Sequence to fold (949 residues):
Amino acid sequence: MRYLPLTSADRASMLETIGASSVEELYSDVPDGALLDAPVDLPSHLGEMQVERDMMALAAKNTGASSVPSFLGAGAYRHHVPATVDYVIQRGEFLTAYTPYQPEIAQGTLQYLFEFQTQVASITGMDVANASMWDGATSCAEAVLMACRATRRKKAVLSGGVHPHYREVTETYCQYSDTEVAGRDGNPEQQATVEELDDLIDDQTACVVVQYPDVFGRVQDHTKLAEVCHAKGALLVVVFTEAVAFGAIKSPGSFGADIVCGEGQSIGNALNYGGPYVGLFATTQKLVRQMPGRLCGETVDQDGKRGFVLTLSTREQHIRREKATSNICTNSGLCSLAFTVHMSLLGEDGYRRLATLNHENACKAADALDAVPGVTVVNDSFFNEFTVKLSKPAAEVVETLVAKNVLGGVPLSRLYPNRSDLDNYLLVAVTETNTDDDIAALADALKEALA
Amino acid sequence: MTFTTHTGNRGLVLEEKLIFEQGQAGRTGVDLPEPKGTKSRLGGLDRDSDVGLPGLSEPQVVRHFTRLSQKNFGIDSGFFPLGSCTMKHNPRINEKVARLPGLSDLHPMQPESTVQGALELMDQCAHWLLVLTGMPAVAMSPAAGAQGELCGMMAIRAALDARGENRRRVLVPESAHGTNPATAAACGFTVDSIPATEDGRVDLAAFEAKLGDDVAGIMLTNPNTCGLFERDVRKIADLVHEAGGYFYCDGANFNAIVGRVRPADLGIDAMHINLHKTFSTPHGGGGPGSGPVVFSDALAPFAPIPYVVRTENGFRLVETADENDGTKPFGRLKGFHGQMGMFIRALAYMKSHGSDGLRQASGDAVLNANYLLARLKDKLSVAYPGYCMHEALFDDGFLKDTGVSTLDLAKAIIDEGFHPMTMYFPLVVHGALLVEPTETETKESIDEFCDSVLHLVGKAQSGDAEFFKNAPYLTPRRRLDETAAARKPVLRWKPETA
Fold:
């Protein structure tokens, strides 16, 4: 086997040094009958060529998102990833390193984590960010748990604009820690007002969670909500699914948010059918010690040179065990590197232009779709994703579009399976990758499907 | 010859500023089309201030990250015997196939008809895990080992709730990884620590004495964190089951037994598998991992959504609980369906090895560790007697009275060109040194490492503590002041204020 270097002569001489008669003898602690004497019932080893052939056969059974006009979003977005990103993350020194437990020989990882934290804090408008979480949904759940720790309260109010998967993950995380998750049902036709959310805040409310832009694509100012939360001793958590947006819209930090977290996949990471992604997590200086996850900090070495280390680890499970701020250990290292490299390439000008192009393409698509009989654009405001109401159930229409080689969007019925009132709504995401021809193809396909 | 250079660089060891210290306004590393100036529909929330990102060209970015990479030690760089982390070779074919557009360029919400190959791949990966563990069910969605633990313990909590039982105590050996107690606490359990015996295993009598009708179960790592197989594992399983609890097995060390022992035959109810350990998906400087969880029949109905099922009309992704099929999912753990990119790599790894190669891999891992143990045991102090599994554990007894600590020795090992072993874990062993060579190392590299360690141990024992206190000497940075970092945390770059 090509990865296993020991020869029979090696094995024999090593067993002799050990003083064992066979490898099986080394397994003598295994209870009787549990040690298998033959390989399990699975295929035998394959050469590299055969493995590649098998995987290509599986790949061939899928429709790649970039192989057809594609308008799917709802928490994952197709963006162009510069070739440099993939080059950097495949360098073995990054790819095959681990958590920087020995900082003297991990300054590469530590320095990019410090840069990553700075980039995340910058785009969200917050003081500090951690070294990443698993994804946007788990970040949202961890933010709620953090708010509960910080306020010593046990209730979270989730706005109806929060992605239903984020809500489900939050409920899953909270269900066994006596934390109540309250909130409103999402409605693409009507946004919750500050007053409606205010009514749900009581003296046990640790935080209010809103999404910005929200799951239906709307862009809403939360400055007033932050004031309302703070007046009642609760924190404002702003989650997001599209990290490109902050190149075009005001940062959540500018609203007075206490925790800002969400999905970083859009920058530098492929769609990967849902993972691995990278959770971004930022907060204020005041709350930094309540944060979950790893943090990289600046320091100096023995010779007085600047260097970086993992820090504030007394929050973490390997020190605090059952009293840790979270059980997270491994995070999304390489995905955060991809984010950092892409963001470094973009820079101020590139990031803002990328965001503008996304928005302009989305405006173009919204106008094109609004002109299709049977389609109404619901949103007044949006960044690169908006909701349309169709004259037919969206799930059926999406299937019809597949037959026309168009991936038309995400039907809200897939996100809200128990909400028949949302059956006719479709969520459409438009990025810099969509051409005018793509938009025309979507409009034409919808016209036929709805005729 | 030591002298300082004008730049601070030392030949190929190059100093590298932060990107924020290198940028120039107006520079960029991407060429994007000129926006058309469309009137915005951003709800009046158009960004009105700079983000604060530096501008760099593509060549600057490439050079920056190349230079940073050169300050890192990876498996590709050299021997990396970081115990409990399983730093084995990461095959490049796995990277190549994970980037096939038909696999990487799939949106998680694409209609099922357009992702049949992806669902089949997840199903195949699941099938390999089920056969290798002998278990009836698997949840693929957990993002990493720690989330796998969460998945397993939540299923236990859900099963207890379904039984209407308010069992809240979880037994955890004191040698357990910190994620175990942290996970149990996150699921609303209290943690009760089980002591170890003189030979590094669960103290069966102490364990039995702790059982009661408030015990939800045990979280036991097997092989355990001391690198030993729990001889009494079946007895432990029987006892916890008789007491009405469940057996969560932490599968972090499954790599020692894969293809040779099926955890199902040991009586477990749930176990997570770190794909980045046993099945060699890259550690990536700290993730992404992937932690599928296998379940017994007792826990399978509580597995989280979403999951893949095979039907007459192809594969289907179940995203909501169906009351009619008898399942009661405890919820959703992740935004989408799991770490697909890791499933691809793990499946390529499993197919490459096959059932014969996986068995060989675990055997060679155990052989390498025992060989290393045999080579070092006379000069270092072995924590527990007997054969080890995939990693060898030493305590710091051999450094007694030398003035040299485990940390000091590790730093000197760095100068010798190796990544050190895991230090100070497990906590039950004083000054622990946990060494895991893995199966992809040659006998020659293990010999070279052992020779170097023996050389250093001799040096420590001959009274040269000062040398060790100041190691490493030859690295891009020398020992870093972690106390200062924590006392006044600087967690981001900020522009200098005038």
Summary: Residues 355-476 of chain B form a domain with the Aspartate Aminotransferase, domain 1 fold (CATH 3.90.1150.10). Chain B is about 35% helix and 10% strand. Chain B touches chain A through 207 residues (CB under 8 Å).
